[in-house]
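Changelog-adjacent note: as of this version, every example in the card shows the full chain rather than a window. The one below runs 386 residues end to end.
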Amino acid sequence: MQIIYLGYAIPEERGINNPAYSAAGNKFELGILDGITNEYTVNAISIPSVAPYPMDKRIFIQREKLTLRNGIETICVSSPNIPIIKQLWQSAMVFREAKRIMKKTKDDILILTYNLYPQVGSAAVKLKRKFGKKIISIIADLPFDDASERNFVSKAVIEMYNSVTRRNLKKGDRYILLNEYAKVFIPETAPFTIIEGGINPEEWQQHENFDGIRKDIIYSGALTDYSGVVQLVEAMQKVKYLNITLRIYGNGYLVDWVKSKAEKSENIEYMGSVPNNEMRALQSKCLLLVNPRPTDTDIARYTFPSKILEYLASGTPVLTSRLNGIPREYDNYLSYIDTVDAMGIAEAIVRFFDGNYETALNRARLGKEFVFSQKNWYSQGKKIIS
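Full-length structure tokens:
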């Protein structure tokens, strides 16, 4: 049995200073590939992360073969760097590369995709129709637009793009979802399993116990409306008396707003974006990690925040909103924000500080053991394989 993997996986070093790169998404893909290559021969085809011209000065992106983690190779398809034309070209090139592999392979083949957006999904559906192969799709992102700053033309194009994705979502045979609620987007009778993400335990260092002096809270992630960073910043204005500092790491369209608020606040610091290995070290050394994502958005309803796994792997206590995508098995290891507004987050922070820190730290240690033993990519890979 062989697998043709259609996705966006690239070497992690290609994400440095790349505005089109999704570190969380790429780590998810690399983890999936690590988890299944012990059982299957994987032929990977990738759409590279490339910002549109003139942000990226290249007019044409050349085809190239790259090596991912653990020696896995992927073919990055070519494309002109012009919106719409780029996406159509990429879909055609993904189909062409996969067709070439299928024609020369005598073994049985499955198609595994990362999402079913047109570049990947339309190529996969065409391959299924032509060769009669089954599609198993990892649905990490769904067809809704959270970028509220887009103009009318851009929104119209994205809606067309999303309508194709919605059709593709009905054409798979089996699905891997991050959140059980996302099953509303797939055929009612289609088999699916839930894999919210995974970690590589070897990436994490030992947690350094809180020394009783530093009082720093860290938020790391997207600076967008759906991330809850606005409510978190406003909450910090209500807890100045606690003598704690919120350090914000990340990027997004709210970055200028965050910088402005940090400059005017004595208990908020904007730290910019740092490499993932440096971020892991920082998460392992702080007092508390916060995920204030609002619960009433589509992203919150149908996905799983990968930062929860990353936070737990650090061994640092975690304070998070009660997202419906967080399975009940996580409840023993997390502290929850009941109401995700400025007052509710402030109350949750105060409640955390009023509690016993050693108890919170012990719960965090158990959470680290939990994700190391049950949410590592080897275990998640076995679930996919079965």
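Structural remarks: The mean pLDDT is 92.
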